[in-house]
Every structure is written in structure tokens, then in C-alpha cells.
Design goal:
Blueprint lengths: L2 H4 L3 H34 L7 E5 L5 H14 L4 E5 L8 H6 L6 E3 L5 H4 L2 H18 L7 E5 L1 H6 L5 H9 L6 E5 L5 H6 L2 E4 L20
Parallel strand pairs: 1-5, 1-6, 2-3, 2-4, 4-5
Length: 216
């Protein structure tokens, strides 16, 4: 037996020391991070209904909005959904959430380049907004999703001041999620949280058709 071969070499000691030092530095960094996070959590003591805006040119804004609604319903909260622009396709989220008592108000005219009728679109948007106003005045509804609302303001289908006023006058505990591209600056100003979804790649640009259960 070669006892010498079993003895740790200087290189082995160096490797162990380096690994220990790296682990120690990692723990120190994480401890400092934890202290900062704990400090911020302790300072965040306000409780209110949030206004979330999910905007940007990337895919996934409506998906994120419906994710919030699904999470809320999973926690026993009540929710309501209004869908602007979209509505002619079957909606997987609607199929699921309506089974759990979530009311939907759907514009159901499809995309604006399909209708090509401004007056029809405005009338449909106005009809949905009447339902939205009821949602935003109902203290029994905890979460309201206004899917693709941003387009209604960009196209002047709905009055910006009217929308802003309704959002600001809603029950204090009620959360609202707004999705869509090019969010109006006034929406961004009054929002508590604004997220921008960017487009890096999109399967559709490569000629891949939309997928049931993934895209709709």
C-alpha cells in the first residue's frame, strides 16, 4: 500500500480552502441581502387595493393578468373580468374561471382590424364599460381584470378622465389589473405597480400558428 499517495496534497488543501472561502462569502452576501429584504418587508405596512398595469409589446400580458385572477380565486377572493378587443375566440381562462363563479363581460367584436368599424367598436366598448363601472363600484368584488383596456384609451373609444375617475373611486380594498400595449400615461401615473413585457422572440414571426392552450 502506498500511504504517501493517500495523503492530501497541497493542491487538495488549497481547493478545500478556496471552496470554504467561497461558501463563506456566499453566506455573508446572502445574509446582507436578507437583512435588506427583511428591512423593506418591515417598512411595508400600508394595506390597500392595488392598481397593476401590465403593458409593453411582448407576449404574455393577458396571461399575466389572468394569472393574478386565478391566484386570487385560489385564495378564496372574488373576481370579475372585462375583455376588450378580443372575444371572438374561445378563451381557456374564461372556460375555467366561469366554473368558479367569475363573471365576464366580453366586447366580443374581435380585433379592430377585423371589425373595421369604429362606431361598432365604440358601442361595444361602451357596453362593456357599463359592466366595468358596476364591478368597480361593488365592494364584494376583490379583484377586477380589465384585459386590453389600454387600446380603448389609445383609440379614444372610452374617455380617459371617465376611466381614471372610476378607478380612483373604487372600493379601497379592491385590486385592479389592466393589460395592453401603450398604456396611457395617466394610467401609469396612478398605478401602484407597472410592468413592461418586452418582445425578444415570437413564434408567430417564424410562421408558427397560434397554439390552443398556450396562446389562447
Amino acid at each position: 500500500m502506498n500511504n504517501h499517495a493517500q495523503q492530501p496534497t497541497d493542491d487538495t488543501h488549497d481547493t478545500i480552502a478556496a471552496s470554504t472561502n467561497k461558501a463563506d462569502r456566499h453566506q455573508e452576501r446572502q445574509q446582507r441581502l436578507k437583512e435588506k429584504v427583511d428591512e423593506r418587508i418591515a417598512a411595508a405596512n400600508a394595506d390597500k387595493g392595488l392598481l397593476l398595469v401590465i403593458t409593453g409589446n411582448g407576449k404574455g400580458k393577458s396571461t399575466a393578468g389572468f394569472g393574478v385572477v386565478t391566484r386570487a380565486v385560489g385564495h378564496g377572493l372574488t373576481a370579475a373580468v372585462a375583455q376588450f378587443i378580443k372575444g371572438t375566440w374561445e378563451c381557456g381562462e374564461r372556460n375555467l374561471l366561469m366554473q368558479h363563479g367569475v363573471p365576464f363581460s366580453v366586447m366580443a367584436t374581435g380585433f379592430t382590424w377585423e371589425t373595421q368599424n369604429r362606431e361598432l367598436d365604440i358601442a361595444a366598448a361602451t357596453q362593456v364599460w357599463l359592466d366595468v363601472e358596476k364591478y368597480l363600484q361593488d365592494p364584494t368584488i376583490d379583484v377586477v381584470l380589465l384585459d386590453e383596456l389600454t387600446y380603448m384609451l389609445s383609440y379614444d373609444y372610452l374617455d380617459v378622465a371617465m376611466v381614471i375617475n372610476a378607478l380612483q373611486q373604487r372600493p379601497a380594498h379592491q385590486h385592479v389589473v389592466i393589460t395592453g400595449r401603450a398604456a396611457h400615461r395617466q394610467l401609469i401615473e396612478i398605478a401602484d405597480t407597472v410592468s413592461e413585457v418586452q418582445s425578444i422572440k415570437h413564434a408567430f414571426d417564424a410562421g408558427i400558428k397560434v397554439q390552443k392552450g398556450i396562446d389562447w
